[in-house]
């Protein structure tokens, strides 16, 4: 369990009045009060969104702490429902998704735990706790050993798609900037091939990483979320069985038809599953 949502105090300025005096003092006081009211009005306009956001954050923090309390009391299904309520409110946090995966795992819902960990990993791809828990649950589904991950996929998933895009844009600017300097500045330093080859290789590497990341993000996945799910030859309950899948198996979506989805990646090949038996990953 991790507790990554922290409290932040909001300081509200205190308004101070003025004492009435005689003659010019009273006029000055009135002017200052008018200026003060104007400043208060402007402050309210500017700070109202911040105060509303602070109030919402405090509400989310209280809900997060309540969900953690339910988890510590071994009320795992109730804790999972509480974490889901936070996510449904529009809060997207790897900490909430991580704890949701823990609650699902403790309640025996391996498939939903994998879905939660994978969503958390999309937001925090280098988090060691998320990666370790995901591998542990996968090993549990696989009967003691996690499925081998291709080396290239392990490298690509170290960054999310946005980070690959930023890195590629930076490499492109670096390459273009060096080429522009070569044209503007006549210097033997900029004539070195290394200053052309190295940025070009970096740019190509980033483009490959971006393409692979986009490919992985574009592939729809289905995770089995019910035990002893039957994989059928066709999109009908009466269709012959291909094999029985365990809760937590991860499959690639090939096609969809009505309430059925065609998947591949099972031990015995391609087949059809009812959508009620799987959760989808973008």
Q: How is this structure best described in words?
A:
The radius of gyration is 28 Å and the shape is globular. The protein has 8 helices and 7 strands, in the order ααααααααβββββββ. The chain folds into 3 domains: 60-143, Serine Threonine Protein Phosphatase 5, Tetratricopeptide repeat; 161-218; 221-281, SH3 Domains (SH3 type barrels, Roll). Strand 2 (229-232) and strand 3 (241-245) form a beta hairpin. The longest helix has 49 residues, at 24-72. The strands form 2 sheets. A 5-stranded antiparallel β-sheet has the order 6-5-4-1-7. Strands 2-3 form a two-stranded antiparallel sheet. The protein is an alpha+beta fold and 282 residues long.
Radius of gyration: 28 Å
How many DSSP E strands? 7
Order of helices and strands: HHHHHHHHEEEEEEE
Q: Give the overall shape, derived from the CA principal axes.
A: globular
Adjacency order of strands in the biggest sheet: 6-5-4-1-7
Kindly state the percentage of residues in helix: 55-70%
Tell me the count of domains.
Answer: 3
Major sheet details: 5 strands, antiparallel
């Amino acid at each position: 369990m991790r507790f990554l949502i922290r409290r932040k105090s909001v300081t509200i300025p205190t308004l101070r009045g003025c004492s009435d005096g005689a003659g010019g003092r009273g006029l000055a006081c009135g002017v200052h009060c008018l200026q003060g009211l104007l400043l208060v009005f402007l402050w309210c306009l500017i700070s109202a969104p911040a105060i509303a956001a602070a109030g919402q954050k405090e509400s989310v923090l209280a809900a997060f702490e309540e969900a953690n309390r339910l988890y510590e009391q071994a009320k795992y299904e109730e804790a999972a429902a509480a974490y889901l309520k936070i996510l449904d409110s529009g809060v997207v946090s790897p900490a909430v998704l991580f704890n949701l995966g823990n609650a699902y795992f403790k309640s025996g819902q391996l498939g939903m735990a994998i879905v939660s960990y994978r969503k958390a990993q999309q937001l925090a791809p280098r988090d060691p706790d998320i990666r370790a828990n995901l591998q542990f649950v996968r090993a549990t589904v696989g009967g003691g050993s996690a499925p081998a991950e291709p080396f290239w996929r392990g490298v690509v998933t170290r960054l999310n798609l946005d980070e690959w895009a930023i890195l590629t844009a930076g490499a492109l600017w670096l390459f273009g900037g060096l080429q522009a300097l070569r044209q503007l500045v006549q210097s033997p330093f900029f004539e070195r091939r290394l200053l052309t080859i190295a940025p070009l290789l970096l740019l190509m590497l980033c483009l490959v990483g971006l393409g692979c990341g986009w490919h992985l993000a574009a592939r729809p996945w289905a995770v089995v979320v019910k035990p002893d799910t039957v994989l059928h030859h066709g999109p009908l309950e009466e269709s012959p069985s291909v094999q029985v899948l365990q809760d937590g198996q991860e499959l690639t979506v090939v096609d969809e038809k009505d309430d059925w989805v065609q998947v591949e990646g099972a031990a015995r090949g391609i087949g059809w599953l009812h959508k009620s038996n799987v959760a989808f990953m973008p």
